[in-house]
Design a protein that fits this description.
- By secondary structure, this protein is mostly helical.
- It has one domain.
- The longest helix has 20 residues.
């Protein structure tokens, strides 16, 4: 799978329904904002600019690390965990960060 397909894959597996919950549950929006801030901080701490390239690298690395630890994406109706919110936040960020 090419790197550019990762956001679409993650959205189709679970991120889109997580993002859709923002309208019904404002706390999810706030949580996604907090995750986005943490991601920006982590990327900048590495001395990198927050860009589509750095966000994509973060997304793939986080996904791989979570799966290595046994994490599986939640299904609609299941509780949202840290990893699901973090990955969903990165997908959302990729929509709003201009290309370099």
């Amino acid at each position: 799978m090419s790197d550019q397909h990762w956001p679409a894959r993650i959205r189709s597996e679970f991120a889109q329904w997580v993002l859709d919950l923002r309208a019904q549950h404002p706390g999810i929006g706030a949580s996604l904002d907090q995750h986005a801030a943490a991601v920006r901080q982590a990327i900048r701490a590495l001395g990198e600019r927050v860009s589509p390239v750095s966000l994509l690298a973060y997304l793939i690395g986080y996904w791989d690390g979570a799966h290595e630890k046994g994490w599986r994406a939640p299904q609609p109706g299941q509780p949202l965990d840290f990893a699901a919110l973090r990955l969903s936040a990165v997908c959302l960020m990729l929509e709003s960060v201009p290309a370099a």
